[in-house]
């Protein structure tokens, strides 16, 4: 023990010297690091009129001056005055004196912190916590140990079968003092499991609560001859005498209070003392997921390693709300070793957060289900906010709600987190917003704590072994995968009286049963429990526990167990509705509205959490049975008893699959198809559907429902892709005809539905509408009016490029008012919404005059941008320029689905330029993708600003590129035939902001970066730097693109003297004349984020691994990676001589080479946004 030290009084700064027998310092029990001297403490007592404490006498007798300023306390949430304790040691000093056994650790704590608050409790009718000091708890446990020595000998087993309580701890300490073996029994166990534990442990004594007394009486009467119990301690003071009378005659019965009183007056029959290091300390029984609970043996030396003191600052308050029969006990004891205060939760669980608000703990811990209570309420409030304010942003909602939820457990939470099951991403994100210092623990009964935030603790040794039945191998790339075997000083000694289980290996490792992915040297991602994971018939791997946590919801689901079959394509689920749902939906088991809303809820969760289509239950059975430990549906750890549930619901599960099979077979019947579509898309039976005029997407079909229908059809040998189903030109009558034709030719099925794309007459698509010429003829002034500053109509201002373009228009003196087209926003909220877009895009708007923004509320997919004729005409008279940047960016949808938003809106931009008193200048934001011929690979075609795209690529490009090509041609044709002056800007790959690294991350390079960061792999591109190979990326920073467009479009001389005389148009390729080889790009990435480099063929296998391909960020552009080399561009494929020339005329720089600085900024930004 360090004998002396020094600390300064917070009030008067006087050094406080103290020794073991000398001067004390006074420490506030509520505020961290608040120590004062005796004199300042006494003055504060006088100020607050505090009578003398029996523990801390004071002698100050002078009157208090009126000018006296009391001690300032950092904890404002707990009313003054605060209590103090006398402290001898600094935490850092005490930490160095920890003992060498469980006994010595706790004796040291009790002797060192006699005045500190040790255990607290709250009576149900009380609103405060009452506290027992360390000295009081020590005395109680000593008295109990003295009494027990008269009945139980050292090394005998003593069980505790009770809810959490103060006596639980006192009995626990007495067991340590007398060298007994502790046997915690989960307080919810029924007679079966309780009997098994008592029998296996050979317990001589059991302490039981009043609630569980009848269970013990039943066990002892039914198994009197096999159990070793000879003493029962009733923890409560008022036992049921009728039950006492039923105890076997040989059982010694005592109440807890009787033993405390007995111990006060009777000396112990043997002295207290530590166990030997190899003596058994406690038996912790597993949850019993694979049968009878197994007793996990912890010797004194292993459990000591678990609970030995660690260094934290005093005071530290925690709430004990988890069952003491499992890891919670070790957790709480660990805090008690260093003098923390433990509030023991004894209320009903619906009052847990009320208790926290009173106790104000420094630690908020629990399994995901605990946090899901808060998250469920938060989610419900977010829903109501958006319902009342449709245009409010998530950031604005969180400004209101997060402080509210952060204060729910009080104002002192420093750390939040827990374990037992993975936290869903959305729930973890919510927790981190409230409490940034978040931790997620992985552990087990046998190993205690193993990792924190996915990283193995330093004392843990591990290795992986193959799991061939699930397809996981230690040789997997890029990450080894397999079952993890563990070894550490805290590892249990084995299973009690069980030599057949091979979990504890001869080489000292423990087989955890958990399948993990080794992300780096000591970082893991838990994939599944080996015994619970399964595969579906298509080879997709499913971990049900992870999915189930995602679907828990206060509004819909209290419990959900997901089930899959290796012979089936789909998952099914057993659902127990939440209490809130039961109130909302009468007769919930048979309520069709609940079933329908539940499926919509599944869709929303899948979208929010980016679940794959096969991870969403196809069908569910609704039951209102209460799942509990007593009913055997739940295990003592709070996890599902999966084997029992599967057996209990076998009939219902079989029926779910039978109904799916029947639905698949019946889909060939048009009537059955109609019924299925109505059920899938929530279309009322009395609402007519004209199959000859509408498509699947036009009646509400989305990507998830399209996948669902597509998968069903494939199982009856009808191969129709989800993309084909979503094609707006594919009418339901064509779908019906193919399904009912009994044609098993998969090729013809696919062809029949994809010809709609090739049947588009693109020559007609680029014809100018007749009303364009009529509008031109009616124009009073058939030329543009030159002004010093332009009023601009801007579409797409909330997109990636659009937000930066708006910022440039507002900071460029060549522009005046900017009429911003916004979808579904109220004018009163529009500017605030734009601010939130700027914040999200990391754009500073301090120098932007937002008063110059005039919101135009409309819809890009509706005629005249969603405006009525009067609004459209009024706008035409106010503006000088149209900048059409808006479009739906979707690489999956076919051309017909994108025509309204991308092509028809461009026609309306032309109409706007032709409407009113004069012509308007027209600026169209196209894309370099209008040149790409996706039917040809490896051709080095040179394209510059003067190159014109061909309509021949329309049928081989994706729908998005084709829609931009058609629009590009329409604008240039309108310029030539209607004399509309126009500029067309064709950006290449728009890269991140050169200032902040903020990125779009949904274009080609962005998706590649996300895929590489996710798998921590990059590939070896073809060729070397400088070689003429298609391994280059043409990257233009978004801020450069926006600034260049604003500057070029705003320069008057370019509209008057710079136009192409023949076409009345200028085209600018917004590309970088300094493309970067992917070799350099990947090297820059790895400087910031180390990755494994793989040959291209291996890298693609990693990205599109069977059963996991859909989760890859590059899955939507999978077709680009089917060649033999990494898809890129040639070094001189795209150039921009006109752009460079015109920028030079106005003293603007071209796009600069992509260097390490910007790449690293981009990677840092992306990593900061990854949970």
TrEMBL record:
InterPro entries: AMP-binding_CS (IPR020845), AMP-dep_synth/lig_dom (IPR000873), ANL_N_sf (IPR042099), FAR_NAD-bd (IPR013120), NAD(P)-bd_dom_sf (IPR036291), Ppantetheine_attach_site (IPR006162), Thioester_reductase-like_dom (IPR010080)
Domain AMP-dependent synthetase/ligase: 108-496
The keyword Phosphoprotein is annotated on this UniProt entry: yes
Membrane-traversing stretches: none
GO-annotated cellular components: endoplasmic reticulum; membrane
This protein's UniProt keywords: Phosphopantetheine, Phosphoprotein
CDD domains: SDR_e1
Superkingdom of origin: Eukaryota
First and last residue of the signal peptide: none
Pfam families reported in the protein's UniProt record: AMP-binding, NAD_binding_4
GO MF, one example: long-chain fatty acid-CoA ligase activity
Domain Thioester reductase (TE): 794-1045
Entry protein name: Carrier domain-containing protein
Source organism per UniProt: Polysphondylium violaceum
């Amino acid at each position: 023990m360090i004998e002396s030290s020094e600390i300064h009084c917070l009030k008067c700064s006087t050094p406080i010297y103290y020794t073991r027998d000398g001067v004390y310092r006074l420490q506030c029990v509520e505020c961290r690091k608040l120590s004062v001297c005796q004199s300042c403490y006494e003055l504060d007592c006088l100020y607050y009129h505090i009578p003398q404490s029996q523990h801390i006498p004071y002698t100050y007798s002078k009157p208090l001056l009126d000018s006296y300023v009391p001690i300032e306390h950092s904890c404002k949430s707990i009313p003054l005055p605060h209590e103090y304790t006398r402290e001898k040691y600094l935490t850092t000093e005490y930490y160095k004196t920890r003992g060498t056994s469980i006994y010595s650790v706790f004796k040291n704590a009790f002797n060192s912190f006699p005045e500190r608050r040790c255990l607290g409790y709250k009576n149900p009718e009380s609103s405060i916590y009452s506290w027992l000091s360390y000295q009081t708890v020590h005395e109680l446990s000593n008295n109990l140990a003295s009494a027990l020595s008269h009945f139980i000998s050292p090394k005998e087993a003593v069980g505790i079968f009770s809810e959490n309580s103060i006596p639980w701890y006192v009995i626990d300490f007495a067991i340590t003092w007398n060298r007994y073996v502790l046997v915690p029994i989960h307080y919810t166990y029924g007679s079966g499991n309780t009997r098994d534990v008592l029998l296996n442990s050979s317990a001589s004594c059991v302490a039981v609560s009043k609630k569980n007394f009848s269970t013990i009486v039943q066990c002892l009467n039914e198994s009197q001859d096999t159990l070793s119990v000879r003493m029962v301690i009733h923890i409560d003071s008022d036992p049921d005498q009728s039950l006492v009378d039923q105890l076997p005659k040989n059982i010694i019965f005592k109440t807890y209070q009787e033993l405390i009183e007995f111990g006060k007056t009777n000396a112990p029959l043997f002295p207290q003392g530590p166990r030997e290091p190899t003596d058994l300390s406690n038996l912790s029984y597993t949850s019993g997921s694979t049968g009878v609970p197994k007793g996990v043996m912890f010797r004194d030396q292993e459990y000591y390693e678990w609970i030995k003191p660690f260094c934290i600052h005093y005071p530290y308050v925690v709430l004990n709300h988890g069952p003491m029969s499992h890891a919670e006990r070790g957790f709480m004891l660990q805090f008690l070793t260093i003098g923390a205060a433990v509030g023991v939760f004894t209320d009903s669980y619906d009052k847990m957060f009320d208790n926290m608000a009173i106790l104000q703990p420094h630690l908020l811990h629990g399994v995901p289900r605990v946090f899901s209570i808060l998250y469920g309420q938060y989610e419900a409030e977010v829903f109501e906010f958006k319902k009342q304010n449709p245009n409010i942003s998530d950031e604005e909602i969180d400004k209101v709600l997060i402080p509210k939820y952060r204060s729910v457990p009080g104002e002192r939470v420093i750390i939040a987190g827990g374990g037992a099951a993975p936290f869903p991403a959305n729930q973890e994100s919510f927790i981190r917003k409230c409490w940034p210092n978040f931790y997620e623990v992985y552990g087990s009964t046998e190993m205690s704590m193993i990792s924190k935030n996915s990283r193995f603790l330093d004392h843990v040794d591990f290795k992986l072994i193959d799991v061939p039945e699930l397809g996981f191998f230690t040789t997997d790339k890029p990450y080894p995968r397999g079952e993890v075997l563990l070894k550490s000083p805290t590892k249990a000694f084995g299973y009690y009286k069980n030599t057949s289980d091979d979990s504890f290996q001869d080489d000292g490792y423990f087989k955890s049963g958990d399948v993990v992915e080794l992300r780096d040297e000591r970082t893991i991602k838990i994939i599944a429990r080996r015994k619970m994971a399964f595969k579906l018939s298509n080879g997709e791997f499913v971990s049900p526990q992870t999915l189930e946590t995602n679907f828990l919801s206060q509004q819909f689901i209290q419990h959900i167990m997901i089930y899959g079959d290796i012979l089936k394509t789909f998952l099914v689920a057993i659902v127990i509705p939440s209490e809130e749902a039961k109130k909302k939906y009468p007769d919930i088991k048979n309520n069709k509205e609940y079933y329908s809303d539940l499926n919509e809820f599944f869709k929303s969760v899948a979208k929010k959490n980016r679940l794959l289509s096969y991870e969403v239950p196809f069908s569910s059975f609704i039951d209102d049975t209460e799942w509990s430990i007593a009913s055997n549906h739940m295990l003592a750890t709070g996890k599902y008893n999966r084997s029992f549930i599967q057996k209990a619901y076998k009939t219902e599960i079989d029926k779910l699959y039978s109904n799916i099979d029947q639905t698949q077979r019946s889909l060939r019947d048009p009537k059955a198809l109609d019924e299925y579509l109505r059920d899938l898309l929530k279309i009322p039976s009395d609402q007519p559907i004209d199959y000859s005029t509408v498509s699947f997407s036009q009646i509400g079909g989305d990507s998830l429902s399209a996948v669902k229908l597509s998968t069903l059809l494939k199982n009856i040998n009808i191969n129709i892709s989800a993309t084909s189903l979503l094609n707006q030109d594919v009418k339901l009558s064509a779908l019906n005809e193919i399904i009912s034709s009994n044609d098993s030719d998969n090729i013809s099925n696919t062809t029949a539905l994809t010809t709609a794309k090739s049947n588009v007459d693109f020559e007609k698509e680029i014809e100018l509408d007749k009303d364009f010429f009529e509008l031109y003829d009616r124009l009073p002034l058939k030329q543009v009016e030159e002004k010093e500053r332009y009023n601009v109509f801007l579409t797409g201002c909330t997109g990636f490029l659009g937000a930066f373009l708006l910022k440039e228009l507002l900071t460029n003196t060549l522009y005046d008012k900017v009429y911003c087209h916004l979808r579904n926003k109220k004018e009163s909220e529009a500017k605030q919404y734009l601010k939130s877009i700027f914040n999200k895009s990391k754009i500073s708007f301090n120098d932007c005059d937002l008063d110059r923004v005039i919101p135009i509320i409309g819809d890009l997919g509706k005629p005249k941008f969603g405006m009525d004729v009067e609004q459209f005409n009024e706008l035409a008279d106010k503006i000088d320029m149209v900048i059409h940047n808006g479009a739906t960016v979707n690489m999956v949808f076919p051309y017909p689905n994108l025509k309204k938003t991308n092509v028809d809106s461009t026609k309306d931009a032309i109409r706007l330029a032709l409407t009113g008193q004069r012509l308007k200048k027209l600026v169209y934001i196209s894309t370099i993708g209008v040149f790409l011929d996706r039917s040809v690979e490896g051709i080095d075609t040179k394209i510059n600003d003067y190159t014109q795209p061909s309509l021949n690529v329309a049928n081989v490009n994706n729908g998005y590129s084709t829609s931009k090509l058609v629009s590009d041609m329409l604008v240039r044709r309108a310029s030539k035939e209607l004399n509309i002056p126009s500029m067309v800007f064709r950006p290449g790959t728009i890269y991140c902001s050169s200032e902040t690294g903020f990125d779009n991350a949904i274009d080609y390079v962005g998706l590649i970066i996300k895929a590489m960061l996710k798998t921590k792999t990059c590939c070896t591109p073809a060729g070397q730097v400088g070689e003429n190979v298609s391994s280059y990326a043409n990257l233009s920073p978004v801020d450069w693109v926006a600034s260049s467009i604003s500057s070029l479009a705003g320069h008057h001389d370019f509209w008057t003297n710079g136009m192409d005389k023949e076409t009345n148009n200028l085209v600018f390729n917004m590309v970088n004349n300094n493309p970067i080889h992917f070799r350099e790009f990947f090297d820059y990435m790895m400087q910031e984020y180390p990755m494994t480099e793989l040959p291209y063929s291996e890298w693609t296998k990693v990205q599109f691994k069977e059963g996991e391909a859909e989760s890859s960020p590059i899955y939507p552009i999978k077709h680009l990676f089917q060649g033999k080399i990494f898809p890129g561009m040639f070094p001189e494929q795209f150039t921009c001589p006109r752009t460079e020339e015109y920028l030079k005329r106005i003293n603007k720089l071209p796009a600069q080479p992509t260097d390490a600085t910007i790449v690293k900024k981009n990677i840092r930004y992306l990593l900061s946004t990854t949970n």
